[in-house]
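Q&A FORM
Asked by: J.P.
Topic: structure of Tetraspanin

PROVIDED:
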Amino acid sequence: MSTSDISVMGAHGGSWLAFFQEQLPYATSVTLMYIKQIQSNALNAFSVLPIRDVSLDESAFQNSRNVIACTLFVFLQWECCGAFGADDWNLNVYFNCTDSNPSREKCGVPFSCCTKDPAEDVINTQCGYDVRAKSVKQKTYIHVKGCVPQFEKWLQDNLTVVAGIFIGVALLQIFGICLAQNLISDIEAVRASW
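REPLIED BY: S.T.
REPLY: Here is the structure written out as tokens.
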């Protein structure tokens, strides 16, 4: 009998009943953990409520390089500004339009919200200054669409790709569970032969 025969038949020489009685609790717990992981990932990825609660209230936009880089990438990629529009920046301590705000960026938006001028090679990082205080149409200077509706639209447009990635990851994890189960069977077969 070769090693592959032992791994296929399990550690009990073909007694599938004994194999399942010993391995069923382990396989069940791993499967339940896997299902719970898929459930939590799906809820986090597709739940609309946490996305709709996006807030620019904290000053983290200016204080964290990672938040700045991520926000700028999203704004530039989707041509959006704020969670639901440019006025969401009133919740930020640097960009709000209150009289008590001493910031130079008062009533402005980050430069990533600005519409790109094709004639400019260099990004104007001050293009968003005072743009929300002006009485002219904001649409000529900045993107007025919010990023949450843009994300929802992108998710709907790319649902097959997103679902394919989730299914691919799920299959890889199932394959890992099967390999782990096979390894346990091989270990038990070696133990039994001692």
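FOLLOW-UP: The chain has seven helices and no strands.
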